[in-house]
Amino acid sequence: MRWTATVDGTEVVAEIEANATLAEALQLAGVVAVKIACAEGTCGACSVLVDGHRRLSCVAPAMRLLGARLQTAASLSDGPIAAALVASGGLHCGFCTPGMVVALHDLAQAERPPKSVEELRQRLDANICRCTGYSQLLQGGLAGIDAMIRQKGQQT
Amino acid sequence: MTRVGHVGAATPLLDGRAKAGGSLPYLVDLDVPGLVHGAVVRCPHPHAQVRRIDASKALSMPGVLAVITPDDAPPRDIAGEAFYDTRISQRPVLFTEPTWSGAPVAAVVATTAAVARRAAAAVAVTYTPLHAVIDLPTAIADEIHAFTGRSNHALPFGPVHLDLGDTDEAFANAAHVFEDTFTTATVQAAALEPYGALVIPEADGGLTVIKGTPAPFLLREQIATWLGVDESLVRVQCPNVGGGFGSRMDDLEYIAALLARRVDRPVRVVLGRGEGFVAGRVRHGARLHIRSALDSAGRLVGRELTAWYDVGGHLDLGPYVILRALRPLALYRTPNIRFRGHLLYSNRPVSGATRGFGNPQATFAVESHNDRICRALGVDLDHFRRKHLLRAGDINVSLGRVDTTTGRFMTGKGTVSSCEISACLDAVAEALPTLAEAPAGHLRGVGTACGMHTTGKGRKEVSTAAITLHANGTVTLKSGAPDQGGTGVATTLAMIAADALDVALESITVELGDTRDGLHDSGAHASGRTYVAGEAVVRACAELNARRESGEPLPITVTYRHKPSSNAPPFAACGAAVSIDPQTGVTRVLGLVVAVDIGRVLNPMHARGQVLGAAVQGIGFALYERLDFDADGRLFTRGLRDYGVCRAADVPDIDVRFVPSHEPTHPLGVKGVGEIGLMAVAPAIANAVANATGCRIRGLPMTPESIWSALNGYSHPPEAACFRATTRSADQKVPSPVGSFPLDRGAVCQDKTPAPLLDAPSAKTR
Q1: Given pLDDT bands bounded at 50, 70 and 90, which one contains residue B143?
Q2: Helix, strand, coil shares, percent, chain B, to 5
Q3: Poorest-confidence range of A80-84, B151-155, B356-360, B650-654?
Q4: B494 near B477, Cβ under 8 Å?
Q5: Chain B nearest-CA residue for A15
Q6: What was the pLDDT predicted at B146?
Q7: Is this complex's ipTM strictly greater than 0.95?
Q8: Is the CB of B486 less than 8 angstroms away from the CB of A82?
Q9: Touching A: B residues 461-520, CB under 8 Å
Q10: What residue ranges define each of the domains in chain B, with the CATH number in brackets?
Q11: Please, which pLDDT band fits residue B154 given cuts at 50, 70 and 90?
């Protein structure tokens, strides 16, 4: 069946099966910034923002999100979090990274964003990285969150 | 000359921004005109005979294009491979006698991936289950292997072996003899990107294979041989890879190639996660028996390591993998060494290359054993190590040649060109007191370990670089070396070229891992690409500079083929602090320091990342990771949820230290960094657990139950890591497994009480 959504401000279309997950639908629609690694909601690589909140697209039914407005890492790639991850060495193979960027963005938007590397370590609990060993990822992630909060503070 | 000076400076990955924004395409993102999708039918039984395959239902499903069975799948002729089981000259692509649960027996191609998966499930296969060996203890005990019908040894002559000096004599005259048996579980690299392959049939009868292989040129040769076509008709391209760790040599491309040829369209096969656990390569599960002889002054006079590595359903690289068990033996200067490396078939997933390549298992055994010896003798471990550790100029006994017809390994004259292991130990000693304290009521312990690995495979290595300096000042750098995802080869090679040619990093375009240009490269393995491919770039740039200076007009292209003459070992020392909840046995790593000698550090940021990532995989190997099988030999690790990949909250902030070092065999002074960070982590954690509890856990992973059992005085056999069970069909007569393996000693030894110290050892050795 025909599935449509607005992804990063662009209308996308895919021909999907009724029980397809959001991640599968996005993949069929040619969205590359959403990665499927575990397909069971364990690793966070497929994270997207739905109404500003992080969702694991590999366990979300696509038809429930028909016509939804989604944001992926692609629209965050010029943001402070992506920049900080690159600058800190917080990414290697890059397969988990779009999901990490989305998850970190979600944490930065939280009512109480993480204030320390140790707090971020505990709260980045839905995402797996197999390459980096996390240290540089967490440092970069925290720096990115801080930068984003500062940016927002300047805007308001 | 060095205006830019990238080498030595922290440099972010060139493709970092593309990765962070998700715009970098991986295999699954590639859009090829006419692409259709494959799925694999896998045998659920660990060992069976395929009786009948009924594809009629699958073929009747809308969108299904074809189904292939073993009749359509010519086997691969592996007799050309240098070191293999000479009794089995062919390896099936689709199996009529599947030898592990998950072996491919048929494949489907359909217009969408979802239809292909459903159709694969609809292919009705009738099996006759056969006798299966589903754990290593049984494989060791069984005399006859079920599917070879002969010895269960994967090599017809038995173990690969090394004898240095007179080990029997050393043990006969020793003042102290110690022995231990250790085990390690079957684990998988579990790279985050699913395993897969894409094959495009070309008009000239050839194929383009897009696959995250670590060795595109080797794969091209293997596929051309299999198809009986000239190598020029096969192109292998390594795309962006979501993590490799060696484990992508999974043979999926053969199935994709058959499907692509059948329907004459491009076919992509991408595996689900559970399927990836049985179809991708796993790290050899191992049992290791180690004996050491010491004289009255506490000097190591003899050592004997007998290793049994589980190769799984067929042999893949096993002989080379098990020879890496020599590294931790070579790390300590010992006059008499005996090594026996047994490779045993089982009906488990196929073991192959995995980060560390056979070394982490043996390093765990040797370093745990060293700690045990020193505790028992009451001598200082650090002192013991420094007395015996390898130094620059010493012969590295793990380097040499193996006679592939007898399995005899002959140590060569290769010496250690640079070695700063002592400085690594200093760095660990300095950092150890800074590691965190345990929560109240928990046991805290610290432990250390050392490790040695390799940088490439020495004379077997080759790498070719083609560098073009264009008239507009930009540079195109091509190398046959692939970038296995996070290794950062592209960035490293670009940094080297930028400095050598005195151009900006941004002006360099890097193209890697494509056989089309014929830039032969032996592959991204053994931590060797910076050392091997990096030197090819250095040499090519030097020639390019010379031609430029002689007035040759731009553009200039230089192609340089480099063959290294040595493989410099990198070294590591690791210190770990653990906290154990005595009520539950749950163990956490409080802090970890890894000090490495990797020669000159080209990119401190990324080198640190490599060590960090490897160390965290080492933590997983030590405490969490294990593929679990049920009593019928089927994997019940179905997804990442069931598998102990470390999350951020599972690991501490790791202290990585680089000791000053310069490798004289390389123009830039570098050694390998990809694997060494993993090597010493598991034994350091095991030694910390022994320090905290007074109990020696001899099986990895050290689960809460094994630690709790040890704390409460229950013997926890090392085999607990793998289920001890066999299945066999009623009509089959097979020798019953020997009840208990003769080398099984007390699995848990209270280090507080005197360890078994055999004062007058018998000369009986294997």
Answers
A1: low
A2: 30, 25, 45
A3: B151-155
A4: yes
A5: B112
A6: 53
A7: yes
A8: no
A9: 485-488
A10: 16-24+457-562 (3.30.365.10), 32-130+194-241+248-279 (3.90.1170.50), 160-188+282-455+568-750 (3.30.365.10)
A11: confident
